[in-house]
């Protein structure tokens, strides 16, 4: 009996349908630098518009971890695309880079055109928030590797910065610098293996019915990672920011030391941190230690800037949501939260 690719588990018609559904979303992200269109073998982007003396490209790649499992369970897929963009562009922002373009990769067990289009719609929305063009992507249907309803999502961002304006904390951070924090929108995209263990295995919650402060747990957990690009870039033009850190896996204790020169540490005032109810609830439900909480979650802080004391007032005037949470002190690279 003759076989077909479709009988082997790959439905090309669903792929063609997905492309038709996502064209509009992708084109809405295009910026003047985009030279290519959908359907090519690669994406083309011109740097002529940037007009920098010594342009340096900055790249970053990431995924959204097991947050995709929640999206799959709830059959809500758009926000996960925003998460993917955020995880990449916030990272390259830490070097002072302005995002230029983005590419996404989705691998799935069975390609459902509408579901995949929902993910890409979210990716496009994230790109618009970051000012990046979505110039390429891939959706791979992989029966036998993934279960039918499963998928994974990853992205790749490229930005640009003038060589003289690259931000490298290890060169500039000094004792006495202040740490200013921008709040997270929630859990963002890290710690979800622990979150799932708590809410499903321990508490057995119905996420659509369980509420915190009048908002469903489903909405709270799927709240997309905040993208800090548009608010932070103007600050970099106005102030000599010594370092920036995107607070992701490992929380404050693991991400702040990444920008510290040798011989310096960080002292954090716990009372200054933004208070998001989801974190206290997770600690209560999971009976988690303070160390486990700070070592796993962002604890309300999504992004940090290291600045001189004399620049604090100006930065806070430009970033109304920011607050001082700590300072740089002498030490051996530790983060002390007290």
Automatic annotation (TrEMBL):
The record's listing under InterPro entries reads: PurM-like_C_dom, PurM-like_C_sf, PurM-like_N, PurM-like_N_sf, PurM_cligase
CDD domains membership: PurM (cd02196)
**This protein's record includes keyword Nucleotide-binding:** yes
What's the top EC group for this one?
A: ligase
Catalytic reaction equation(s): 2-formamido-N(1)-(5-O-phospho-beta-D-ribosyl)acetamidine + ATP = 5-amino-1-(5-phospho-beta-D-ribosyl)imidazole + ADP + phosphate + H(+)
Keywords of the record = ATP-binding, Cytoplasm, Ligase, Nucleotide-binding, Purine biosynthesis
Which PANTHER family does the record associate with it?
TRIFUNCTIONAL PURINE BIOSYNTHETIC PROTEIN ADENOSINE-3 (PTHR10520:SF12), TRIFUNCTIONAL PURINE BIOSYNTHETIC PROTEIN ADENOSINE-3-RELATED (PTHR10520)
Q: What is this protein called?
A: Phosphoribosylformylglycinamidine cyclo-ligase
Q: What organism does the record attribute this protein to?
A: Oribacterium parvum ACB1
